[in-house]
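Quick question, first post here. What does this chain look like in 3D?
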Amino acid sequence: MSTSVVADTSALTGRSLKHILRSPDTIITTAVMPIAIVLLFVYVFGGAIQTGTASYVDYLLPGILLITIASGVAYTSYRLFLDLQGGIVERFQSMPIARSSVLWSHVLTSLVANLVSLAIVVGAALLMGFRSGADVFAWLGVTGILVLFTLALTWLAVIAGLAAKSVDGASAFSYPLIFLPFLSAFVPTDTMPGPVRWFAENQPVTPIVNSIRALLAGTPVGGELWIALGWRTGILIVAAMIATRLYNRRLR
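> Answer (accepted):
Ran it through. Tokens below.
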């Protein structure tokens, strides 16, 4: 990015973050649902689910973190849709600012908001008994995985915000993303019927969940980390390209 693009993106990101600070219910709402799911599964269903780990909350947390992100990025498409409908984006285009800074400001705002929501969820998990054998480098690895996952899903959210015809349509895209971690993070896949097990073991979210789980447990990650990186990087690049093309076409 050039200096002007960085400056413009910083200014617009600051604008978006101020909106969130004035209405923190976005972050609270994003964190409340995953915490409620943890409470439900740990204290209601956890005793009936055999995972082979000392604590079910330890097994569950990686998937909950991904659900938190999937819930949070829906607000990105929602805010972008409102900006487009309200005419503020066209107003920005009449000013001497970099065109790409509008999209990047929404992406960076999503990253900051989701990291705060993730911290809240991890804090709640600690109160519920979550414990980790991870060292500093493992935690940095987990953070890197979550950052890349957030960026990839946020660019998908940008596509939804650009293509949506209504407010409901702008945020509804996240529902399938919220569902996917349930197939790989809540129970061992070997308890599932054949076709469901095959899908659960080969869907994009599974290697991400397994990589985070291994890092938090302080155990070797193995080759799944590279599969997880491949999925996220591929989705990130393709989604960013499609979003940029849609954005440029819309503003012609």
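The two ends are 22 Å apart (CA to CA).
Residues 52 and 59 are 9 Å apart (CA to CA).
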